[in-house]
Protein: Sugar ABC transporter permease
Amino acid sequence: MTVQTQPALRRRQEWSSYLYILPMLAIVVFFWIIPILISVVLSFTQYNALSSPSFNGLENYRALFEDRIFRQSLVNTLIYVVTVVPGQTILAFLTASWIDRKGKNPATQFVRWAMFIPSLASVSVVGIVCRILLNSPTSPLNTLFSLFGVDPSLLLGNEATAFPTLIVIEILIGSGYYMVIYLAALLDIPRSYYEAARIDGANQFQIFWKITFPLMRPMTLLVILLGSISAFQNFDLVYTMTGGGPGRATTMTAMVYLYLYSFKYSKIGFAMAIGNVLILVIALLTIVQRRLASRKDNVLY
Structure:
């Protein structure tokens, strides 16, 4: 009799275990899956704030890829990603490695907090402050430059310097968060690896290249994935600093473009098509990262 009731008991235990994930599952369904499905449906309609949705097939997607401003915003977004993500990753990794190597002292503590604190601030506030500092002839920064005989420069008002300025600021304010991730991973590496390498006569570069770097590969892939998703979704810094300008689309990113069509032009169906393209790109990035992360890494030394 006991043997016969075991499968039934096991099934009851399995079903009861699913009850624990129901709250999170409900959140995922109502705040992630359903909005995506609604977005997909609305992207095939002509829909604005003053009219009901009417089906128009692939017209939004056709118009989207024929729109020069969208193509420019997509190029700007890709440039933003391929410059910001490596910049943040390299700066965070090198800083974390330096802090880990030097240990706890006033210099490393200062660098740690100086890099991490900007990542705690509201990005919109950072963008407004940077705009005041960089885009006014009477700003404190330009006033300082004038003391050394340098003419005031509106970095955000110049088409040649606006986008590079955005990229540099994004790297500086975002790298502190990834530095903390790297630092936690570095502290998790057994010190015995380093001690054995030093006993065998390995120099600092060999220790870094053959021990630290391979063991940091999974964490680096995670940082690249998180950084890429964040860069693709970047809106608040770009919008508060430049609004997509100067000019018509010098710093226009896909998220700013989506915002304008959603809330300024009220073309909801068209905006949903933009959002779906971005979701597809981010999903592809996630798949690539998962495949790369599945490979095993070992100490080479």
Notes: Strands lie at 45-46, 54-55. The radius of gyration is 25 Å. The chain has one domain: 61-293. The longest helix spans residues 68-102.
